[in-house]
Every structure is written in structure tokens, then in C-alpha cells.
Amino acid sequence: MMSSYCVATYRLFDDKADFHKKAQGIAVGLTVGSWTELPEAKKAAMEKHLGKVLSVEVVESASEVRYANIQIAYPDVNFSADIPALLVTVFGKLSMDGRIRLIDLSFSDGFLTHFSGPKFGIQGVRKLLNVTDRPLLMSIFKSVIGYDLPELREQFLAQALGGVDLIKDDEILFDNPLTPIEQRVHICMSAAEEAKRETGQSLLYAVNLTGKTSQLGQQAKLAIAAGANALLFNVLAYGFDALHELSADPEINVPIAAHPALAGAIYPSSYHGISASLLLGKLMRLAGADLVLFPSPYGSVVMPIEENLAIKEALLASDSRQATSFPVPSAGIHPGLVPLILRDFGNDVVVNAGGGVHGHPMGAAAGGRAFRQAIDATTSGISLEEYANTHQELAEAIRLWGVRT
Ligand code: 1AE
Question: What's the predicted TM-score (pTM) here?
């Protein structure tokens, strides 16, 4: 039987190294450990465990740092079919060994059979919300640490009345005595019902799933039993496998939004870490995130546009057997950025804002409405400035934050 392999692509920086030799050293070192010293009989037995160098592309020019893109195939037989085992194999010790960056991974068919991906994905989330034809809008609770349940409900209601499709907890709101998860869900979902009587609109509330790793599944089920219809999860603090466990659990039958907290410790360097598209794109989708948040190129925490588009590509790629995940470019988003977001992401995007909703001069409900107006204008091909002539909330937002083109 043919062996199957997962393939890692690295960018390795070195002023003078023999990259072919380095690549061979990685392929052998991260699999069988040594090769030339093995007796011939042992070599035959170990062959199926040996990593293989697929390509070495050296890039050198007078103006750039010398580097090589290297592809190495790792036999599936060497690791268990989970993301931690794969990552430790391909970039465990290696991540600490000089200027080397993991830029991509491709998974064998055999490995992929162990991952069903997002349970809902873009189509499933749209179906839950009954919104098929426009970008979605999410707002974020802000500054609610120290709030009690009635205060939290008031902030939720104001957001919901603005016509948002999703509301997410702030990622720094953990389970706490003032607003424990079940009661938080209960009062927020009752506020969602109240708002729906006025707006006619359903919404998803992504409650922050926190606490000890061993209790996450149980916490999620308690939240769902209390009425939670979505979850927020700080994936990188817990690890991809924790997300995979949650998304693969048939009783956790609500969409999961992946927060990128800690990602800045992993992706931004040119020389180290893991590329944003792999970390926040491919691996999030593989582990089952229905929505993935990441810094945008336009707001307060900035990621270069090419990296954003590479994340989008990884979340939306149709060559996967897994459902697609919603891209959620975030941080410092205000209505004046909506035309740029829709230009770069199209319709399958969630526009997401905290300060851009709560900071609206007429309040959070008006903040939500200003975003919806910006989305309506842009999808109708009307400039925000023109639409603002007949839409006061948008006009106020533009006065405060401006329009970026
Ligand atoms: C990249 C994550 C953004 C996020 O979680 C967050 O809370 C953004 O808030 P604003 O929109 O910047 O206020």
C-alpha cells in the first residue's frame, strides 16, 4: 500500500547555508533521526517512516535576505491523527531552531478523514439567521467586566435593537460570580427575544466559553441547555485540539466563533512562527470554527492585506471537503470602513465591531443601524456619503469616523 503524507512548507533564512542539506537534515531529523548510519536491513524497515524533501527553492538577491522555500512530506504513520501531533512533528523543536517559519501545511486524505470541519459553516450560519444575501453584522460587548446581569442585559438589548445578526461576548469576559454563563445566556436570550419583537430579526449570541480545559465540553452543554445559540472560544489559549473536541461533539450543536487572542505571539514575524493564513485560516477551519476573527488591514490592529486575503482564501477554499468558515476581519472597525471590507471580502463576510457600535454619538442601537445602513448602501452600489443624506445614523458615524476608500 502507498504511504500517505502531510506536507509542510517552510521558509528558511540563512546567509550562506546549503539549503538542500538543511532540508535533508530536517526531513531525516524530524522523522527517523538518522539515516546514513543505519544498517541496510534497518533502512528497509524504516523507509516508511522517513520524511522526504519534495522541493527546495532558493531565493537570493542583493537586496533581500537569502532564503529558501522548502517542502517536506511527513509520513502519516509517524503521528496520531490530531493537530497537536502534526504540529509537534513538523514544527515542534524546529520552531526554535534558527530563522525558520512554517508557511503552509497540506493534509493527506487519510488525515483529513479524522476532521469533519465546521458543523455549520457559512451556509449553516446563514440558515440559522435566515439571511442569505448580504454580509452579516456582529457587535461586541464592551467594558462589561464588573457589570451585573441587569446591566449586561441593557447593553445586549441596545446592540440587538440596532439590527445586528450576532452579538459576541468580549473575549476577556470569563465566567464570574456577577454574570455566570448560564444566567448570562438566559438574560441575553430574553433580551434577544424582546428586540426581535421590534426588529423582526433573529440573532446569535456567542457566549464566551471559558474555564478549565477538562470542563469545556460540560460548560458548553450547560450554556446550550440554558439557551445559548453560539459559542465564542479563545482557541489559541487552549489549543486547536480543544476546538476540535468541541466542534466534533454532536451535543454541541451551535456555531463556534474562534477568537484570535494570542495570535500576535505566533504569526507576525517574517522569520519565525506560523503564517497567519495557516494559523487563522487552514487550521481554524480544520478544527471546526464556523466563524474566525482576525485583525483586518483597515482598523486599529492591523494585518497586511495580502495576509488577510490569504486567510480568507483558506477559510473559503472550495477544494476542501469541509464546510467554509465565515471570515470576520475585526478590531477598530467603523461604518466608514464597510466599503473596503466588502470590496476585499465580498458578501461572505461578517462585519464586526465593538467600539464602532458603542461609540456612536446616538448610542449603541444607532451604532448598529449605522453599520446596517453602510452595508445596504455598499451592496446597492451607493456611496456612504450619498446614503447618509437620508440616513441619520450613518451620517453621524461618518461625521465622527469618516469614510476610507
Ligand atoms: C481581532 C479581535 C477583535 C476583538 O475581539 C475586539 O474586541 C474588537 O473590538 P473593537 O471593535 O476594536 O472595539
Answer: 0.96
